[in-house]
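Student: I would love a firmer grasp of how sequence relates to backbone shape in proteins. I am handing you a single protein, as its sequence and its fold in token form. I am told such tokens are a discrete way to write the fold. I hope you can help me see how the letters and the tokens relate. Take your time, and here it is.
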Amino acid sequence: MPVKYEIIDDEGGPTLVLKDQLTFADRDLFDSVIDKLLARKRPAVAVDLASLDYMDSAGLGMLLTLRDRAERAQAEVTLRRPRAEVRELLELACFDSLFTIQHA
């Protein structure tokens, strides 16, 4: 099942809301989502993880791809509100040293 996503534009920059799962099967779709997100040409983008139930190691890689492409576009990526299971994975992968992670 492809990742469900929505891009919400607000004053601070666009927010990518991810729902359900982010896995290897979502790779091609996620690349096109990154294109749409970065096309807004804002200095900050956020990824809302509150509705993401599951993410595998490929999902982590996709977030790193987003970070790398955002840096080239001179944008900073913030991860927001990860659920407990996703937060654990982010912590195990030391993503708190690569991203700003907002827990509330």
About this structure: The chain has a mean pLDDT of 94. The longest helix spans residues 57-72.
